[in-house]
Amino acid sequence: MGNQVILIKHPLIQHKLTLMRKAETSTAKFRFLLKEISMLLAYEVTRDLQLKCELIQTPLAPMNAPVLASDKKLVIISIQRAGQGILDGMLELIPSARVGHIGLYRDPKTLIPVEYYFKVPHDINKRDVVIVDPMLATGNSAVAAVERLKSTNPQSIKFVCLLAAPEGIEHFTQVHPDVPIYTAAIDEKLDEHGYIVPGLGDAGDRLFGTK
Ligand code: URA
Q: What is the documented function of this protein (predicted)?
C-alpha cells in the first residue's frame, strides 16, 4: 500500500465510527456522526493547504499573519448519494470550497458503476480536488470517479472515505497509484454482494433512512 493510503486513527474518529457501525444506531444519529467524522477527516486532508501572510492589525500591534492561500481553490466532489454525508461535514469546516457531484450507481448484478450525473465547477482545472464517498468497497465507483475527474485536468486529486476494504484499496491503487486514499478504517473483506465486512451496512440507506 505504501504511502498512498493514509489511515486516520484518531481516537475520536475511531469511537464515532464504532457508533456508526452499530446496527441499532438511528438514521439521525448516523447522519450526525458522519458529519462529525467528516469534519475531522477534512482536518487531515487539508493539512498541506498553502498559507500566505497578510498584514493585519491586532488590538496591540500590526502583524504579518498566516491565512489560507488556496481555500477558494478547493473543490469537493461528492459521489452520490452517500458522498453527500461526508460533503456536508467538510463544508462546515471549509465553507468556501466549491462543490461538484458525480452520480454513479452500482449495477447490482455486475457491480459495475454507471454514470448518470456529472456537474463540476467550470474552472476545475485550476483547483485541487477532494473526492468523497464513505465506502471504498470493490473500488469500481471510486476508480470510475477518479478517471472521470482526471479528464477535467485538476491540479491534484485526493480520495476520502470512511471505510475501505482491502480489495477496494488494491483495485484503486493499481489503477490510480498517483491518488492518495484517506480512510478511517480498513476492514476485513468484501462479502459476495460487494458489502464491506464487518462494515456498517449500506451507507446510503443508513444515511437517508431508505431501508
Ligand atoms: N456500499 C455501502 O454502502 N456499503 C458497503 O458495505 C459497500 C458499498
A: Catalyzes the conversion of uracil and 5-phospho-alpha-D-ribose 1-diphosphate (PRPP) to UMP and diphosphate.
- Output the residue whose Cα is nearest ligand 1's atom 7: 195
Task: Write the pLDDT tens digit of every residue in 152-206.
Answer: 999 999 999 999 999 999 999 999 999 999 999 999 999 999 999 999 999 999 9
Instruction: Give the pocket of ligand 1 (CB within 6 Å).
Output: 82, 135, 137, 194-196, 199, 202-204
CA 84 / ligand 1 centre spacing (Å): 14
Question: So what's the ipTM on this one?
Answer: 0.95
Rounded-to-integer distance, Cα 147 and Cα 118, Å: 13
Burial 40-61 (b: 16+ CB within 10 A, else e): bbbeebbeeeeeeeeeeeeeee
Give me the domains of the chain, ranges plus CATH numbers: 2-208 (3.40.50.2020)
Ligand 1: residue whose CA is nearest its atom 3: 202
